[in-house]
């Protein structure tokens, strides 16, 4: 080991000794550790309970569907299916927007229902203080702890006069900075360790996907390092320890508490979204523009009729070998679903635009970048929810059309009687919803990369700043 | 009076104090402006929806307002708009208005399958919470107080003036009280001036504004007392600052989050899904059972229709809507249960106010602004009453087989926004008062012992 690195390590060891002797620092660190571990265990328990509850609901609802008696297929189109969104594996670590999105969707014909019963709508306003999860602790509280541990790293030495002494004894400013830096890299590692262990244990136990877990750990390590290096930088620059603390706490407030709340205001003010009712009215209007299946003179459906008759080579709808009303129903469903898709895509695009506006500020608030990264990796971000809604809508379409097809083929076209029904055995042949969990690395690859890049750039810039500040420190001491 | 002026000058000469106060004033003003903008946006959205609704109703009237029009068709295709405009004080505490729908259309069909429909919502924007007066008061005001107070005593000791200060005869005795009261009034002024201006702009009721101001005064008193208590213990500025920030984390971030986790486990609310599933079963089963079975409970509730002709064919609108009403009534117990557990969460949060000042302020502000879960339940209740009015309106047409014509569309009931359910929750207010009094009392005692011990130093 070279002489130079020994000196760096000596500085780091000294800093560690001072930290360990500081009772408040130790208590705070242990509390934080306890919080991360407790919230992870509670989160895991909660996730399992929620997952089981949703799976149970899904099973009972699917059984109820299969157990329906003989009916006209169109009755089943409106009896509908319930779909429950299963929680992702890493939701125990970062539940993301899960509490704010509904997780229950009712599927029926010619309607696109919303996802209902979100936790936020059913909770008192306590929920808005934040959810106690490992992500919350790491994103919000851990930076503050780091700031409190590191704000006096250099400024206190300067205040107590030991700085001049150290430099006079031949310690280079860069060595001092490197030593302090290594000490706080150690602090970051110690703070992140419980979270890291929890994630590693979860991944090993098959409770969490390994690669996203690993990326999650790296993201948080970089994020916490940003705070440590920022604290060191301020400590290098500012004359008094107290001022360093004020600057850092103010930065924490702006970056972690204020910015995330102010930016959404900006986004909704800039990019307004139509309400569900307006969308419903617009879809209804657009449908009427296309055609009215109940109107015998309607151009669209007259053409559809002509085409269908030609396809079966018959003259009148009464001569069709299949049920005409069912065919009209299928065509109607095709039209409405096309419109639903179009409006849903527009709504998603607007949401994406709003979110983009907020996420752009990840450049000034690393919290926004790490929050986004963490939610993406946990599959609890807006995009994962949208992916779920898209899967649900695809399923709705297939399920409704399968029922319509049963009407077309199983209900006689003529003389079906007053109350035509088909056998209940058919309900079991219909698909029930199976959720394909998105591969987050594919679904959110770009965002994961971009946010990691932002975080790494922050770290690099702050490190460069520390280098410059250390050089200045040397000049001042001389 | 001179001593007050001198202390005021001292306070504003310190860049940290002056900066913190100015920042608080600016941020409060911004939050009030943001709150006013948010409520104005909600009102604009309601207007937009009303316009869309008028267009839709006009087209339904055209299609179904025939001379031989059928009330069943009209009821099936007519959506009725209900709205829940923000209260005049909602700007100060937006509460749940970002996640709860404040416009909802209902039809004559079963209400329980329509009531929980959600609005278009960007969850990522709702996640961090609103930027409003309540946020500034609960989270940021304590930080400003910490900045102003943490070196109140230690700053004097570190500057070597402490002994001199406490040994001064007249003005010295009351120095801590004077300086604390000064800071208290300035912090409260920075909070209340923008609030009162916002209240004046939105023509808020005086009583509600006063309740919010009172809660703010007590909350600030609590934090100031806590800060004074810590300052009087005679440790260094840095140690005081760290202790107070620790208190802030526990009281505004940690304890409420922990309490929420406990509450959501202790009072589960899956019943919402249960009742929707149960209602669906009841409504759809009606297609497979004899119609008399549906009509039996219906006629018990509506004896006035008992003697109308029975439904013989496969379908009649009056049977269809009766089946929906019976479906709703069948889950009445589940609905009551569901609301009960939602209310219980709210009640426990209010009780928490006895130990958690942040929870008390949260409860008081949002209750006064009528923007909490209880407000939404009141909205749902008013929709329910409106739905009953709809039934009373449509049923005579169906049971008397009267045609439903163009003119009848104009007779349809219109939803009138519910009266405000705002109230002044006494219990969290008393809780807050007790907490503030306890802490302030302890602080005054602490300061007294400090002064005498400092004089002996």
Notes on the structure:
The complex is a heterodimer of chains A (478) and B (457). In chain A, helix 2 packs parallel to helix 8. A three-stranded antiparallel beta sheet of chain A has the order 1-2-3. In chain A, 72% of the residues lie in helices and 3% in strands. In chain A, strand 2 and strand 3 (111-116) form a beta hairpin. Chain A is built from 18 helices and three strands. Chain A has 478 residues and is mainly alpha-helical. Chain A starts with a helix and ends with a helix. Chain B has 457 residues and is mostly helical. Chain B has 19 helices and two strands.
Short description:
The complex is a heterodimer of chains A (478) and B (457). With 478 residues, chain A is mainly α.
Structural class of chain B: mainly alpha
Strand content of chain A: under 5%
Shape of chain A: elongated
Low-confidence runs of chain A: none
CA radius of gyration of chain B: 29 Å
Number of strands of chain B: 2
Query: Mean pLDDT of chain B, rounded to whole units?
Result: 91
Percent range for helical residues of chain B?
Answer: over 70%
**How many individual helices of chain A?**
18
Oligomer: heterodimer
Strands side by side in the biggest sheet of chain A: 1-2-3
| Count of DSSP-assigned helices of chain B | 19
Number of strands of chain A: 3
User: What radius of gyration of chain A results from the CA coordinates?
Assistant: 30 Å
Query: What form of chain B results from the Cα inertia axes?
Result: elongated
């Amino acid at each position: 080991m070279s002489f130079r690195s020994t000196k760096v390590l000596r500085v780091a060891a000294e800093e560690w000794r001072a930290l360990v002797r500081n009772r408040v620092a130790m208590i705070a660190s242990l509390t934080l550790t306890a919080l991360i571990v407790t919230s992870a265990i509670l989160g895991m328990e909660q996730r399992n309970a929620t997952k089981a509850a949703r799976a149970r609901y899904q099973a009972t609802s699917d059984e109820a569907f299969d157990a329906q008696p003989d009916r006209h297929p169109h009755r089943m189109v409106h009896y509908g299916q319930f779909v429950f969104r299963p929680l992702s594996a890493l939701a125990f670590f970062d539940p993301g927007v899960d509490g704010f999105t509904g997780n229950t969707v009712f599927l029926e014909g010619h309607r696109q229902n919303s996802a209902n019963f979100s936790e936020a709508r059913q909770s008192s306003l306590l929920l808005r203080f934040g959810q106690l999860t490992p992500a919350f602790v790491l994103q919000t509280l851990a930076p503050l702890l780091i700031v409190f541990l590191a704000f006096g790293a250099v400024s206190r030495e300067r205040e107590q006069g030991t700085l001049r002494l150290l430099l006079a004894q031949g310690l280079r400013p860069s060595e001092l900075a490197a030593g302090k830096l290594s000490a706080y890299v150690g602090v970051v590692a110690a703070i992140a360790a419980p979270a890291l262990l929890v994630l590693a244990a979860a991944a090993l136990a098959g409770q969490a996907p390994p690669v996203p877990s690993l990326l999650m750990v790296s993201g948080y390590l970089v994020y916490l390092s940003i705070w440590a290096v920022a604290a060191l930088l301020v400590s290098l620059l500012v004359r008094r320890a107290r001022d360093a603390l004020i600057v850092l706490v103010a930065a924490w407030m702006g970056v972690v508490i204020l910015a995330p709340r102010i930016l959404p205001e900006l986004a909704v003010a800039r990019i307004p979204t139509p309400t569900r009712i307006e969308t419903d009215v617009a879809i209804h209007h657009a449908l009427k523009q296309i055609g009215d299946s109940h109107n015998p003179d309607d151009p669209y459906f007259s053409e559809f009729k002509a085409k269908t008759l030609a396809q079966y080579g018959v003259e009148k709808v009464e001569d069709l070998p299949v049920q005409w009303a069912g065919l009209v129903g299928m065509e109607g469903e095709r039209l409405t679903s096309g419109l639903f898709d179009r409006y849903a895509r527009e709504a998603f695009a607007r949401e994406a635009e709003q979110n983009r506006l907020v996420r752009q500020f990840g450049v000034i608030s690393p919290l926004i970048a790490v929050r986004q990264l963490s939610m993406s990796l946990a599959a609890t971000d807006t995009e994962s929810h949208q992916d779920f809604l898209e899967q649900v809508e695809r399923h709705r379409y297939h399920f409704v059309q399968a029922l319509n097809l049963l009407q077309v083929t199983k209900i006689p076209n003529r003389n079906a009687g007053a109350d035509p029904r088909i056998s209940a055995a058919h309900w079991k042949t219909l698909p029930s919803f199976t959720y394909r969990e998105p591969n987050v690395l594919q679904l959110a690859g770009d965002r994961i990369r971009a946010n990691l890049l932002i975080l790494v750039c922050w770290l690099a810039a702050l490190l460069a700043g520390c280098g410059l500040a250390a050089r200045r420190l040397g000049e001042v001491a001389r | 009076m001179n001593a007050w002026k001198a202390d005021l000058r001292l306070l504003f000469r310190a860049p940290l104090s002056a900066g913190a106060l100015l920042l608080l004033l600016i941020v409060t003003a911004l939050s009030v402006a943001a709150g006013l903008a948010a409520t104005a946006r909600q009102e604009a959205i309601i207007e937009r929806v009303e316009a869309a609704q008028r267009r839709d109703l006009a087209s339904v009237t055209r299609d179904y307002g025939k001379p031989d029009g059928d009330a069943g068709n009209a009821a099936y295709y007519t959506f009725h708009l209900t709205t829940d405009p923000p209260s005049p004080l909602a700007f100060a505490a937006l509460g749940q208005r970002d996640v709860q729908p404040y416009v909802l259309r209902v039809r004559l069909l079963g209400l329980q399958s329509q009531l929980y429909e959600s609005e278009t919502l960007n969850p990522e924007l709702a996640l961090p919470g609103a930027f409003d007066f309540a946020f500034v008061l609960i989270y940021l005001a304590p930080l400003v107080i910490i900045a102003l107070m943490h070196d109140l005593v230690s700053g004097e000791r570190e500057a070597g003036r402490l002994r001199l200060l406490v040994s001064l005869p007249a003005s010295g005795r009351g120095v801590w009280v004077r300086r604390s009261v000064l800071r208290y009034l300035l912090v409260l002024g920075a909070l209340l001036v923008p609030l009162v201006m916002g209240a004046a702009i939105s023509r808020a009721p005086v009583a509600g504004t006063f309740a919010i101001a009172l809660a703010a005064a007590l909350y600030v008193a609590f934090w100031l007392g806590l800060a004074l208590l810590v300052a009087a213990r005679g440790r260094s500025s840095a140690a005081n600052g760290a202790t107070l920030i620790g208190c802030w984390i526990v009281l505004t971030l940690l304890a409420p989050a922990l309490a929420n986790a406990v509450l959501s486990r202790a009072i589960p609310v899956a019943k919402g899904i249960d009742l929707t599933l149960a209602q669906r079963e009841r409504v759809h089963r009606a297609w497979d059972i004899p119609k008399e079975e549906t009509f039996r409970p219906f006629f018990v509730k509506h004896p006035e229709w008992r003697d109308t002709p029975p439904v013989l064919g496969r379908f009649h609108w009056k049977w269809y809507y009766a089946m929906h009403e019976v479906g709703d009534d069948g889950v009445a117990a589940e609905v009551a249960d569901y609301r009960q557990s939602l209310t219980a969460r709210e009640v426990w949060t209010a009780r928490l106010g006895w130990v958690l000042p942040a929870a008390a302020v949260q409860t008081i502000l949002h209750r006064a602004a009528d923007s909490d879960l209880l407000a939404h339940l009141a909205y749902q209740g008013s929709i329910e009453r409106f739905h009953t009015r709809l039934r009373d309106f449509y049923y005579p047409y169906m049971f008397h087989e009267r045609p439903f014509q163009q003119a009848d569309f104009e007779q349809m009931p219109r939803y009138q926004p519910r009266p405000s359910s705002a109230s002044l929750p006494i219990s969290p207010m008393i809780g807050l008062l007790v907490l503030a009094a306890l802490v302030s009392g302890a602080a005054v005692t602490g300061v007294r012992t400090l002064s005498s011990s400092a004089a002996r130093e």
